[in-house]
DNA sequence: TTTTATTGTCTCAAAGATAGACAATAATGC
DNA sequence: GCATTATTGTCTATCTTTGAGACAATAAAA
């Protein structure tokens, strides 16, 4: 394992960062995992990090994700670069320092560190899909908390992070049928209703039940398993599993 | 106007570049504009450049495009980031220097410049669409020539530039109908046949003439103009124009 | 005036999407 | 047990979109 190093070190690529939009699904709702920074002032920020010199960008995104959330082995894909000219977190950091002057003593940035991290940054946006029930986000000492928020009711985030989520969601909608990636958000087995509710929360609109089932089954990518007896007073639904390989 | 500066200067973002895939259309063929470097050894390389500190990435892409080709005011969009870890042009530059040792005297890189430019680079891919007849590519002193090559018969290019073109073409195919951008490749007025041949060259397959015409007209984005008398012994086709605003 | 090549449009069939209907069924209440 | 209830799986009819063939219209040449 590599040591976690100070971001002022030169073995990162300068002025280039990675931000991750992590989608999860629970209680019929599409959610995004957002850490809240361990400082006074209510700063929410997407998990971010930098790229080592000897590391590919996809690799870096996976490492950052694991370092910041403990989540690994999940679907991850770049979706857009954010790079307007005045894109810097200096305003955010100045405000953070202002609000935390007293407690910041030992944690205070050195001038060199501060210069490094407040320069203008270009950021590569990645989005991730996880089965939310399979994963326990683990916060780092950087964070006060790390929680799932409904994608359409996120807390106010720093910089352009809300715009990043919007852009990631658009990409997710465009790619969903093309690349058959919805199943990354569900447990291994699921009912047709669960899959439909997932689609509905991603597209924020209702689908007709009969036609949805037909369309999905016609894709010929699901394996029908045993029935799921929920204890409810109605017909038991089948469980399905995504079949990745050959029939 | 800003001076063209040496790439070793610190007012560029380090280790981040932009590469442009410029699509044009002529003689029923989709082409890409590729400069050939003004050195011995047959080096073809997509127009590339770096990002100034006070400049947005889209802005940078437009500037690079104009500096390297003289082309401006065209459709331009980022499509993907290329960032594998060992992505560096050091092999290419070493080979270039080896083959041009004698003539390189005054042009030889300083050690500092060489270090700067041979580090590992992350590159943002942009693709551009131009009306090839409206544009006269202007080569810089960097280039021996700058020419259009059929997209499926490009000369061997340095590094991963062929992969960039492939990826750009994929994106173009995906976006073509979604964003109605095909018209950027044609003159202001065009016949239905010309539009169809453009589509065929982008997707590399034939479309049925009758259905193509119906599909396009049903989009309700074309304005029918007068007929075009070509002098050929057949019915004269209508000219069309892309109507961007309201009907 | 006839011929030729191409264009614009129509029709019909096939495939896909949309909406309504209904039997099947797992538990509950009597 | 037996009717009731909520939900599931599927069928059918309808509408829309896509694909293929056919044909009249027409600009110039023979």
Record keyword descriptors for this entry.
DNA-binding; disordered N terminus; homodimer; 6-stranded mixed β-sheet; 6 helices; 27% strand; 3-stranded antiparallel β-sheet; WH_DNA-bd_sf (chains A, B); 9 strands; 247 residues; Arc Repressor Mutant, subunit A; Nucleoside Triphosphate Pyrophosphohydrolase; WH-like_DNA-bd_sf (chains A, B); alpha+beta
Overall description:
2 copies of one chain form a homodimer. Chain A has helices spanning 57-69, 90-99, 111-118, 161-179, 192-203, 209-218, and strands at residues 12-26, 29-37, 48-52, 75-82, 122-130, 143-150, 189-190, 222-227, 238-242. Mean pLDDT of chain A is 89; it is low at 1-5. The first copy, chain A, has 2 domains: 12-182, Nucleoside Triphosphate Pyrophosphohydrolase; 187-242, Winged helix-like DNA-binding domain superfamily/Winged helix DNA-binding domain (Arc Repressor Mutant, subunit A), CATH 1.10.10.10. In chain A, strands 1, 2, 3, 4, 5 and 6 form a 6-stranded mixed beta sheet that branches. A 3-stranded antiparallel beta sheet of chain A has the order 7-9-8. The first copy, chain A, has 247 residues and is an alpha+beta fold. Chain A is elongated. The first copy, chain A, is 29% helix and 27% strand. Chain A binds chain B through residues 13-16, 51, 53-59, 78, 80-81, 83-86, 119-120, 122, 124, and chain B through 13-16, 51, 53-59, 78, 80-81, 83-86, 119-120, 122, 124. The first copy, chain A, binds a DNA duplex (30 and 30 nucleotides) through helix 6.
């Amino acid at each position: 394992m590599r040591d976690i190093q100070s971001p002022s070190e030169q073995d990162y690529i300068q002025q280039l960062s990675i931000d991750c939009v992590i989608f999860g699904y629970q209680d019929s709702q599409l959610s995004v995992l957002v850490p809240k920074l361990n400082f006074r002032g209510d700063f929410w920020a997407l998990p971010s990090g930098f790229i080592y010199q000897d590391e590919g960008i996809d690799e870096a995104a996976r490492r950052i994700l694991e370092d910041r959330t403990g989540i690994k082995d999940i679907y991850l894909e770049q979706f857009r670069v954010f790079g307007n000219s005045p894109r810097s977190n200096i305003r955010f950091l100045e405000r953070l320092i202002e609000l935390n002057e007293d407690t910041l003593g030992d944690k205070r940035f050195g001038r060199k560190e501060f210069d490094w991290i407040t320069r203008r940054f270009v950021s590569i946006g990645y989005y991730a899909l996880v089965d939310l029930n399979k994963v326990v986000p683990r916060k780092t000492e950087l964070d006060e908390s790390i929680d799932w928020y409904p994608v359409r009711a996120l807390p106010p985030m720093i910089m352009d992070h809300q715009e990043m989520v919007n852009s990631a969601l658009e990409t997710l909608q465009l790619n969903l049928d093309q690349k058959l990636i919805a199943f990354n958000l569900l447990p291994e087995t699921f009912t047709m209703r669960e899959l439909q509710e997932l689609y509905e929360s991603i597209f924020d609109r209702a689908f007709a039940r009969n036609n949805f089932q037909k369309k999905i089954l016609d894709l010929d990518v699901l394996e029908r398993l045993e029935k799921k007896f929920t204890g409810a007073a109605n017909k038991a639904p089948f469980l399905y599993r995504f079949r990745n390989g050959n029939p």
